[in-house]
TrEMBL record:
Native species: Ruminiclostridium papyrosolvens C7
CDD domains named in the record: NucC-like (cd21173)
One Pfam family in the UniProt entry: DUF6602
Name used for this protein in its record: DUF6602 domain-containing protein
Boundaries of every DUF6602 domain copy: 40-144
Length: 365
């Protein structure tokens, strides 16, 4: 390079810019094309589990490449220090530089709930039934951040985590999915709701930020709040090129990365508590159990309090009852009643069967 050419290039570098406005959209469009091809190819696999594993692996590989290296992606379960366990999660993102799993196999891991920042559920086809499953899956995970005995999930800084869905396709329209979500969320505390849904080549669903359901935000902090329903992200360009469809997917990934980069959570688990508290809890249960049945699935706990339930059979007619006496919110009593549990006040000495036979509550203790 001679002096004249050098001076020309220097002038260009100081006074001009190379710009490629569609670099990211074209790059991620090629990734989406690979996902679509893999999805169609895996459709030839007969066994549903193996077919699903391949599709999860494809998404996991993309997520793993884009998130900061201090984080890891795995399949598995969340657990809290009282041994309450979530439903199985397709992809969990946790900070491997600060946390380690309690159980690790070649297929899945059990992680302390404090270590988890994001869960991604992978769906081949997001049907109405699968959407319901995702909602239950989300609740089972997020509720583990709240150790309480009255099923209260009050907003608290640093406790919430991010739950999203990636679907290869859906038989539902975007509008129908939003309608279902808004309807189901009426029964779900704000902190336990789904944060984001992306459907391949169809669009992105995010929380609305106003009561009129007119505006969305791309700020990761605001997307943690789900109290105004959902909206679909509009087309981000007036152009019709296929590459611009990848922008919704890129936003889906970017919001996850933003959450990880800007995380300020100081929730650090005490691993010894995960070992000690369940043992102590079991000791307390055994000391109070006598010959009655303890039903752990019916209870959450605060400290070492737990919901004790007892199964008794009427000596006269043979009808079986499950009794409990924990003071809870009325809607929780209603749910337990629907499940066949019977509440009794702690001051009650006797409870009467439909046939008139009496149960002595002192025998429950």
């Amino acid at each position: 390079m001679n002096e004249q050419e050098y001076q020309r290039k220097l002038f260009e570098q100081l006074n001009m810019h190379d710009i490629n406005l569609d670099l990211l959209s074209k790059w991620y469009f090629s990734i989406l094309e690979q996902l679509r091809t893999s999805f169609e190819r895996s459709s030839n696999i007969i066994h549903p589990r193996h077919r699903g594993d391949i599709r999860e692996y494809d998404i996991k590989a993309i997520i793993k490449d884009i998130i900061p290296s201090s984080y890891a992606v795995t399949k598995g379960y969340a657990i809290n220090n009282l041994s309450l366990i979530s439903l199985e999660q397709d992809l969990l993102i946790y900070k491997k530089s600060s946390y380690s799993p309690f159980i690790k196999t070649s297929e899945l891991e059990y992680l302390p709930i404090e270590s988890i920042f994001t869960s991604i559920e992978i769906k081949s086809n997001l049907t109405h039934n699968e959407l319901r499953k995702c909602i239950l899956n989300c609740v089972s995970l997020k509720k583990l951040r709240y150790n309480n005995s009255n099923y209260s999930y009050k907003k608290e800084e640093g406790l919430n985590l991010f739950y999203c869905i990636f679907a290869y396709k859906s038989e539902l329209t975007i509008e129908k999915i939003i309608s279902y979500l808004n309807d189901y969320n009426k029964d779900i505390p704000e902190n336990l709701r789904i944060n984001m849904i992306y459907i391949l080549n169809e669009g992105l669903i995010l929380p609305a930020i106003d009561n009129n359901h007119h505006n969305i935000t791309l700020n990761y902090k605001d997307i943690m709040k789900i109290n105004n329903g959902y909206l679909s992200v509009p087309n981000l360009s007036s152009r019709q090129e296929e590459e611009f469809k990848a922008l919704h997917f890129l936003l889906f990934l970017s919001l996850i990365v933003d959450l990880l980069i800007h995380d300020n959570s100081n929730q650090l688990p005490m691993y010894t508590n995960y070992v000690y508290l369940p043992i102590y809890w079991l000791q307390q249960i055994d000391s109070k159990r006598d010959d009655h049945e303890f039903i752990p699935k019916k209870g959450l706990s605060k400290g070492l309090e737990c919901l004790m339930a007892y199964t008794e059979k009427c000596k006269k007619c043979g009808k079986e009852y499950t009794f409990y006496n924990k003071d809870l919110d009325e809607h929780i009593h209603n749910r337990f009643r629907e499940q066949g549990l019977t509440y009794y006040d702690k001051t009650q000495e006797f409870i009467y069967c439909e046939c008139g036979e009496a149960f002595n509550t002192s025998e429950f203790k």
